[in-house]
Amino acid sequence: MNMKTPARILKLGLAMSATALASPSYAADLTSSFDQKHKECLERIAVDSELAYEEAMIWRDEGGGRRAKHCEAMTLFALGHEGEAARRLDELAKASDGGSPEMRADFYAEAANFWIAADEMRKAFDSASAGLKIKYDHEDLRIARARAYAGSGRYDYAETDLTSVLALAPNRADVLRYRADARFKQDKLDEAKADIEASLNLDPTQVETALLRGQINEAIRLGKMAPVETE
């Protein structure tokens, strides 16, 4: 299975009195400020990854919490340190300040994909499986686990996970392509053909999908040309 990975993509100097900390409106303002800084940190990665990393480290040391840690991990990935980025996201998902269950599941999904980029399929499987224990219907986690299965040669298990995703989201061209590949690797050529055609119909711009269709069509052609054995 082709598992391309995505492209290499303030100190809050506030005098916090006990009264202010107890104020719901203050807490909402603080959360909004942190969310905005997190957004700016992630956007900076595309402009200057090294600067974004330095600023994320400073922010973490100044109490930026999970948002600073998350941005720091994302900059590490952008700088080519996929494994270290994945490890930090796994730690964040387990940490006391990891956020809501949904946030933790998302961190595990990112970690799994980064482990895949680092060609660490066992670790990718572990991250995806840990996230699915939190949110069993998380599409990206199930896709990541399927990719980890495929990367380990377990195309049957990959197909099962991808089928479960398509039951929830039948029009995902990427998932149809992944399942076509998993079926192709199992010599389920007719089923692979159906999946790859459906994927191309949904998104005809993907070169990877067109290339896989060519491979599947060639395998079908060669299968039809193979001589029939007679006794």
Give the topology, please.
Blueprint: H1 18-21, H2 24-47, H3 49-61, H4 65-78, H5 82-94, H6 101-117, H7 121-134, H8 139-151, H9 155-168, H10 173-185, H11 189-202, H12 207-225
Describe the structure.
With 231 residues, the protein is mainly α. The protein folds into three domains: 41-80, no CATH class; 82-153, Serine Threonine Protein Phosphatase 5, Tetratricopeptide repeat (Alpha Horseshoe), CATH 1.25.40; 170-224, Tetratricopeptide repeat domain (Serine Threonine Protein Phosphatase 5, Tetratricopeptide repeat), CATH 1.25.40.10. It is 74% helix and 0% strand. It contains twelve helices and no strands. Helix 6 runs antiparallel to helix 7 (121-134) and helix 8 (139-151) packs antiparallel against helix 9 (155-168). The chain starts with 17 loop residues before the first helix and ends in a 6-residue tail after the last helix. The model is unreliable at 2-27 (pLDDT under 50).
What would the average pLDDT be, to the nearest integer?
86
Class of secondary structure makeup: mainly alpha
Second CATH tier, the architecture of the largest domain: Alpha Horseshoe
Count of β-strands: 0
Unreliably modeled segments: 2-27
User: Strand content of the residues, in percent?
Assistant: under 5%
Q: End-to-end distance, in Å?
A: 38 Å
How many domains is the backbone divided into?
Answer: 3
Largest sheet: none
Can you tell me the CATH class of the largest domain? Mainly Alpha
Percentage of residues in helical conformation: over 70%
Multimeric status of the protein:
single chain
The topology string of helices and strands comes to HHHHHHHHHHHH
The gross shape turns out to be elongated
